[in-house]
Design a protein that fits this description.
It is built from 11 helices and 4 strands; from the N terminus they run αββαββααααααααα. The longest helix is centred in the last third of the chain and has 22 residues. It has a two-stranded antiparallel ribbon. The chain is 58% helix and 7% strand. By secondary structure, it is mainly α. The chain starts with 14 loop residues before the first helix and ends with a helix.
């Protein structure tokens, strides 16, 4: 059902951040005049102070200015005075170490994994090459956005998870144990090992997590097929910078 809009702007449209920047420029000036360290993107803003008392004082001041001067309301459920590593900003946070590292928040990782699940579910009948072509653009866009993060372990785990999902895709497409034996042998696995893996009676997820399946379908296999590696793409982007 389509309805004509009489007020507001579509969420995610290019006009929304422009209007928010125009309206919230006065807030930026207020924070700059008070010599506060802050970072704002559209309507999402973090202000950094040295103590909780100072944070509560700034929160009261910002709330008063937004409500009385700009006639805006703060989302109380999403606003708080807390340590930087207890909050997220644009899908990122920092670690609690003495030397802070920029990290991806778990919600951002889960959203990417859910998107990959949905895309692979929609394309179950497609070939591996076609599936990889479909997956690559969102993976490139995601890692380009998060290219500055410093906890690379999460990228390694995601790369491994993507490959395992693709192994599951192949395992389902091969369907019969005899076909799986033939395919695994063609990929270089010994016949006895291929039969043991194909006739183990386990589901695709458990079967594709086993060592022998990883030997037959290593990371290099998917690299040759063109699959984007989040870790390698991030390293390349950081070298360019």
């Amino acid at each position: 059902m389509i309805e004509a809009r009489t007020e507001g702007t579509p969420q995610g449209g290019p006009l929304s951040p422009l209007r928010s920047n125009i309206l919230l420029t006065d807030l930026d000036r207020q924070l700059e005049n008070r010599q506060l360290a802050f970072c704002r993107y559209a309507d999402d803003c973090n202000v950094y102070v040295s103590s909780r008392v100072a944070g509560e004082r700034v929160m009261r001041g910002v709330r008063t200015f937004l409500e009385e001067a700009l006639h805006l309301r703060i989302n109380a459920a999403k606003s708080a005075v807390a340590r930087p590593w207890q909050r997220k900003f644009l899908g990122c946070s920092v670690t609690a170490h003495r030397q802070c590292w920029l990290r991806i928040v778990p919600e951002s990782v889960r959203r990417l994994m859910q998107r990959v699940r949905e895309q692979m579910r929609q394309g179950r009948g497609h070939s591996l090459a076609c599936t990889i072509v479909t997956l690559n653009p969102p993976l490139r866009g995601w890692i380009s956005y998060f290219q500055l993060i410093q906890n690379r372990e999460v990228l390694m785990k995601l790369d491994g998870w993507f490959r395992r999902r693709l192994r599951c895709l192949l395992w389902r497409q091969w369907m019969r144990p005899r076909t799986r034996v033939r395919k695994l042998v063609a990929l270089g696995l010994a016949a006895a090992d291929a039969r043991r893996r194909a006739y183990n009676g386990r589901g695709p997820w458990l079967s594709t997590g086993a060592r022998l399946t990883n030997v037959a379908l290593p990371a290099a296999y998917f690299t040759r097929m063109g699959l984007v590696s989040l870790l390698q793409t991030q390293q390349r982007l950081q070298c360019v910078r």
